[in-house]
Amino acid sequence: MESNGKLNIPTDVLQIVFSVRARTTEGWNYLLEQYELSMSGAEKNKILYALSTSKHQEKSIELGMEGKVIKTQDLAVLLQAIARNPKGQQLAWSFVRENWTHFLQKFDLSSFAMRIIISGTTSHFSSKDELEEVKLFFESLKAQGSHLDIFQIVLETITKNIKWLEKNLPTLRTWLLVNI
Q1: Nearest-CA neighbor of 70 among 40, 42, 95, 45?
Q2: C-alpha separations of 125 from 8, 54, 106 in Å
Q3: DSSP code of 87?
Q4: How far is C-alpha 169 from the chain's CA centre?
Q5: Which of 37-46, 126-135, 170-179 is the least confident region?
Q6: What would the mean pLDDT of 35-57 be, rounded to a whole number?
Q7: d(CA 127, CA 132)
Q8: Residue 93 and residue 97: Cα distance in Å, rounded?
């Protein structure tokens, strides 16, 4: 920020530097400006990832829905990045459910963006409660006449996550207690 973007940061650490800077409101605002100014898709993606790790996740999503500052075509990637962060999982999923009709106005139901939004906000779920919540949501969509193969894929992914945890969590917990 102090170099006004003129400091040449190695590409392999740029995302980390952006993420650390996004922790403050001043840094978040600066990165948002840089996102608007950047002509590089790779740099925009790194900035979006950094914005997704900040305390301003909800504002980032709202800007993506609005489509003026954060481009609508980047919304799916932003939601997926937020959902990868344990603190953002429920935020991203809740936002998708609450704004489903708005998503359908922006994207075709069978579009790649919708597939990323659906799978990206749910594929990290690993509890039976989360599985049931997603199932109920998908069933409500089917009742409205919406059905996609991604729904089944997501449910299978969550089921696999649950089974993996049931099988491996005790061993992992023991290992961590012994080694840390």
Answers
A1: 45
A2: 38, 21, 25
A3: T
A4: 25
A5: 37-46
A6: 91
A7: 9
A8: 6
